[in-house]
Amino acid sequence: MPPMSRLGRLFAVVAWIEAFTWAGLLVGMFLKYVTETTEAGVWLFGRLHGGAFVLFVVVTLVVAVRLRWGWFRTLVALASSIPPLTTLVAEWWLKRTGHLAEPAEREAAARERAAELQPTR
Questions:
Q1: Which residue of 10, 22, 97, 109 pairs with 2 in a disulfide if CB–CB is 3.0 to 4.6 A?
Q2: Could you tell me if 21 and 48 are in contact, meaning their C-beta atoms sit under 8 angstroms apart?
Q3: Are 23 and 84 in contact (CB under 8 A)?
Q4: How high is the pLDDT of residue 121?
């Protein structure tokens, strides 16, 4: 697996931030609507998550163009921002498949893997 690029690391960090704020918002909604104890969690994490969501969308679009993801990966990454905590799944998938690396590094790793699979004579 090729090393993550700077943009890949940025995507990973923003994906974790987006997931963390989603979790905070979920806890805030539990406290507000189930226990009916406080609205502070929704007030705080609603704002934080809104900002993190917009940041994630912008970073995803920039990274998708610069790292040449193609439309399918880009749409999956963007869609991952909607259900809670799935940006972590998208980050894991993109890292595991090498798509958070520079395209040249990704291609070199693929050639290396292909050479390893060639039978020796």
A1: 109
A2: yes
A3: yes
A4: 62
The closest of 24, 10, 17, 1 to 88, measured between CA atoms, is 17
Which residues make Cβ contacts (< 8 Å) with residue 13, sequence separation at least 6?
none
Question: CB neighbours (10 Å) of residue 9?
Answer: 13
Whole-number mean pLDDT of the chain?
Answer: 93
Tell me how many degrees the CA angle 95-15-23 measures, rounded to the nearest 5.
Answer: 130
- Contacts for 94 with CB less than 8 Å, ≥ 6 apart: 8, 11, 69, 73, 77, 100
Please provide the distance, in angstroms rounded to a whole number, between the alpha carbons at the two ends of the chain: 26
Tokens of 45: 């994490």
Residues of the chain with pLDDT under 50: none
Q: What is the pLDDT of residue 56?
A: 98
Rounded to two decimals, what is the model's pTM? 0.89
pLDDT at 2: 81
pLDDT score, position 110: 77
